[in-house]
Amino acid sequence: MADESAIPVRVGHYELVRTIGKGNFAVVKLARHQITNAKVAVKVISTRALDADQLRKLQREIDIMKRTAAHKHILRLYQVMQSSSHLMLVTEFCAGGEIFDQLVANGRMTEVTARDYFRQIVDAVDFLHAQGIVHRDLKAENLLLSADLKVVKLADFGFSNYFSRDALLSTWCGSPPYAAPELFEGRHYSGPKADIWSLGV
């Protein structure tokens, strides 16, 4: 688990308020802009804990987030900052939390809500595929909601990659409950088709 003791209280113009998520090498903080008071999320990544391959994948994740930030249903990356030991990604803050947490708290959603959310998710995934990008980790935990619970934002591009229409992918990615059968079988797979399977789940 990421160590929070080395994380500063302030990053650039942002005051880090509290922890809202943790991973092996990263901590996500709710932050406040000191001038505008705008709330953002800051993902603080310990770069010293990453090897060369992990750093390369992190750079790819950032590149993909920059390319897709303009889409209304994809989490927007505002800024990237770096220190000697950390990389910090400043993104929009989705106060509604994860769709997964909403399901745990409230149970099954209505058909109307499910249909509206699904339309927004498909819109985001279709945009990714049109840009030659596959997400490869579509799941309820990576779908964030606005404060009014009406707008869905696709997040977490750690497994995302570029693809070409005539080439198959081979890397096992994603979460088992949402993964397409061909991944379990160890076969090469179409990235977009694997995303579509996860959408169906």
Automatic annotation (TrEMBL):
<dbReference type="InterPro" id="IPR000719">
    <property type="entry name" value="Prot_kinase_dom"/>
</dbReference>
<dbReference type="GO" id="GO:0005737">
    <property type="term" value="C:cytoplasm"/>
</dbReference>
<feature type="domain" description="Protein kinase">
    <location>
        <begin position="14"/>
        <end position="201"/>
    </location>
</feature>
<dbReference type="InterPro" id="IPR008271">
    <property type="entry name" value="Ser/Thr_kinase_AS"/>
</dbReference>
<keyword id="KW-0808">Transferase</keyword>
<dbReference type="InterPro" id="IPR017441">
    <property type="entry name" value="Protein_kinase_ATP_BS"/>
</dbReference>
<comment type="similarity">
    <text>Belongs to the protein kinase superfamily.</text>
</comment>
<dbReference type="GO" id="GO:0005524">
    <property type="term" value="F:ATP binding"/>
</dbReference>
<dbReference type="GO" id="GO:0050321">
    <property type="term" value="F:tau-protein kinase activity"/>
</dbReference>
<dbReference type="GO" id="GO:0000226">
    <property type="term" value="P:microtubule cytoskeleton organization"/>
</dbReference>
<feature type="binding site">
    <location>
        <position position="43"/>
    </location>
    <ligand>
        <name>ATP</name>
    </ligand>
</feature>
<keyword id="KW-0723">Serine/threonine-protein kinase</keyword>
<dbReference type="Pfam" id="PF00069">
    <property type="entry name" value="Pkinase"/>
</dbReference>
<dbReference type="InterPro" id="IPR011009">
    <property type="entry name" value="Kinase-like_dom_sf"/>
</dbReference>
<protein>
    <recommendedName>
        <fullName>non-specific serine/threonine protein kinase</fullName>
        <ecNumber>2.7.11.1</ecNumber>
    </recommendedName>
</protein>
<keyword id="KW-0067">ATP-binding</keyword>
<keyword id="KW-0418">Kinase</keyword>
<dbReference type="GO" id="GO:0035556">
    <property type="term" value="P:intracellular signal transduction"/>
</dbReference>
<keyword id="KW-0547">Nucleotide-binding</keyword>
